[in-house]
Amino acid sequence: MDIENNEELQKKALEQLKSGKSLFGKDGAFAPLLKNFIEKALEAEMEGYLDDEQRDQGNKRNGKGKKTIKSSSGSFEIETPQDRQSSFEPELIRKRQTILAESLEGKILGLYGLGMSYRDISKHIEEMYDMEISHTVLSQITDKIIPEIKAWQSRPLDPVYPIIWLDAMHFKVKEDGKVVHKALYNILGINKEGRKEILGLYVSESEGANFWLQVLTDLHHRGVKDVLIASIDNLNGFSQAIQSMFPKTEVQSCIVHQIRNSLKYVASKDQKEFMKDLKKVYRASSKDLAETELLNLEEKWGKKYPVVIDSWQHNWDKLSTYFQYAEPIRKLIYTTNPIEGYHRQIRKVTKTKGAFPNEMALLKLVYLATMRIQKKWTSPVQNWGLTVQQLAIKFEGRLDLGLKT
After folding, report:
1. Is residue 395 in some structural domain?
2. Are residues 138 and 165 in the same domain?
3. Is the pLDDT of residue 359 over 80?
4. 104 and 12 in one domain?
5. Max avg pLDDT among 203-207, 255-259, 299-303, 382-386
6. CB atoms within 10 A of CB 40
7. For position 119, what pLDDT does the model report?
8. Where are the strands (E) in 4-137, listed by range?
9. What's the rounded Cα separation, in Å, for the pair 86 and 383?
10. Residues 37, 142: one domain?
11. In this predicted model, what pLDDT tens digit does every residue of 132-171 receive, in sequence order?
């Protein structure tokens, strides 16, 4: 492109800017300017590459090739300089690169992380930038984060976490031509500074204590030596799995899960009155008072709902852990609400998915959503200063493992 044409493009760009028209897209002035810049930069790269050593080896220019570049400024065709030995590797635009600028890839990953389908992303890019991007290219772009996901999954963790919550979500995934159910195991932790972070995401066939043991083993291999309190649902064998890996950890089963399971066996006409009596148990000011109210609950409802009462009595040790703590800690651990809140945000981006094409597609989306969610977790949890002091007293010496030197 000569100087005269370049000046014309600059004049056109200025006119579009003054008139309020977009400089981007099919009729925008920016794409030709960008094309001119890229071609001149590639020519300079080739000139620098064909030094005396290359020429002594018989290498020289060998005409030009053409390829279409997609960018946030629109699609355009560029001429690429070639050498006889085909050994020239430009830095600005790689040989097989067809999308310019990480900014567009970043936009695509951002849209994907919000739960948009490839079809919707392709339509959005076409409307915004007047270019078509195939599902294959979109998949290749999102695949670029796979090494990042694997590095994140194996990153080192702190030696001690005061509190963790463990829970699973369930999704449909295609496998060998069939749709199967997969469990996504999630661990949310609070570090010594009181900030929340997702410690890991794991996919398995179904939720079970055996796989949770594998998850906990992985946390240990990544540097976790101690957990003070673990808040979990009432999955059979879950508590034993935790204490086999972290024997000093105190386990709190989720009260809300226990209540939900109880109400399944209580007739609808009795539920209001039953809940009024049950609240006296789990909202008691002390464990002794709670146990007294549990006896009262048994006396009143035991004959009518023996399975429900037996369940509370059988699980009481795990359900009542929180009574030994002051109110700030109780609120944090007596339910799995913190991790369920995270799950609700994940559901917002996965709810439109019927079935994921594979496990990695599920992990890609959940990982991108998780990174976005964690950006909001900048402040310590409420009353953390008081909470961590109480934990330091209760678990004397164990928080020292996590002190930074």
Report:
1. no
2. no
3. yes
4. yes
5. 299-303
6. 12
7. 77
8. 61-71, 74-83
9. 64
10. yes
11. 677 777 777 778 788 889 999 999 999 999 999 999 999 9
3-state secondary structure of 163: strand
Cα 34 from Cα 254, distance rounded (Å): 58
d(CA 212, CA 362): 19
Would you say residue 152 lies in a domain? no
- What single DSSP character describes residue 324? G
Cα(152)–Cα(146) distance, integer angstroms: 10
Q: Six-digit token pair at 252?
A: 């709190």
Report CA torsion sign: 359, 126, 38, 106.
negative
How far, in Å, CA of 239 to CA of 53, rounded? 68
CATH number at residue 203: 3.30.420
Q: What is the DSSP letter of 401?
A: G
107 versus 73: the higher-pLDDT residue is 107
Number of domains in the chain: 2
The residues, any chain, with a CB within 8 Å of residue 85's CB and separated by 6 or more, are: 57, 58, 59
- Regarding whether 115 and 18 lie in a shared domain, the answer is yes
Q: What is the pLDDT of residues 165-192, one digit of tens each?
A: 999 999 999 988 899 999 999 999 999 9
Look at residue 153 and tell me if it is in a domain. no
List beta partners, residue 161. Answer: 227
> Are 41 and 175 within one domain?
no
Host domain of residue 375? 158-246+343-382
Give the number of residues written for the chain.
405
Alpha helix segments (H runs only) across 62-221: 102-113, 118-129, 135-143, 146-153, 209-221
How far apart CA 217 and CA 177 sit, in angstroms, is 32
Same domain for 193 and 140? no
Task: Give this prediction's pTM.
Answer: 0.70
For residue 33, what are its two tokens?
């300017």
Bin 310: left if φ > 0, else alpha if -120 < ψ < 50, else beta: alpha
Q: How far apart are CA 349 and CA 340, in angstroms?
A: 15
Name which of 362, 344, 397, 342 is nearest 164 in CA terms.
342
Do 166 and 185 sit in the same domain of this protein? yes
In contact, 211 and 204? CB cutoff 8 Å: yes
Q: Compute φ and ψ for 197, nearest 5 degrees.
A: -155, 150
pLDDT value at 3 more than 80? no
Tell whether 253 is covered by a domain: no
Structure tokens at 59: 């290498």
Contact 149, 363 (CB under 8 A): yes
